[in-house]
Amino acid sequence: MDIDQIIEGGMTFRPARKSDDSNGKVKTKAKKKAYITGAHGSGSAMQKAKYRQQRANRKRK
User: Fold this and answer.
1) How far apart are CA 19 and CA 10, in angstroms?
2) Which among 17, 21, 1, 18 is positioned nearest to 9, based on CA atoms?
3) In angstroms, rounded to a whole number, what is the distance separating the alpha carbons of residues 55 and 48?
4) pTM (2 d.p.)
């Protein structure tokens, strides 16, 4: 019976409900100092830190 209703009427997909405790904030490591400086040892973080340093040095000139 459910399959027949789906075939005839289709399915409605709705976005998931947002929890009230998130307040629209995204948790990320990207703003933490150890990640920005590459100090925690991740290869991608160290590479990004190198690019950030190069960009900062260009702006100083």
Assistant:
1) 28
2) 1
3) 11
4) 0.41
